[in-house]
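Changelog-adjacent note: as of this version, every example in the card shows the full chain rather than a window. The one below runs 96 residues end to end.
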Amino acid sequence: MLKLLTTQRYSVFTAVIVLTVICLIGSFWISWLIIPFLILAGLSALGIHDVRQNHHAVTKNYPLIGHIRFLFEKIRPEIRQYLIEGDKDEQPFNRE
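Full-length structure tokens:
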């Protein structure tokens, strides 16, 4: 069971590495595949950094996907302000 959880946890990271290798091999025949290769290589480097670091448990346990959590933390106030709060909520003032 633990092995199954580990493979699911790193599945996105593994998929990015596999796609990086496929794009590298494919770029020998199809020249435009170098652009996805460069993007995926950057994501692979970020994932390797995430696995090796010790500061954030979220990004260590869920490389690449953990960064989405930090993105949502940054845009949380805007989401609450424009999508969740109503016009009659009085913080900081009533809009009507």
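Structural remarks: The chain has a mean pLDDT of 82.
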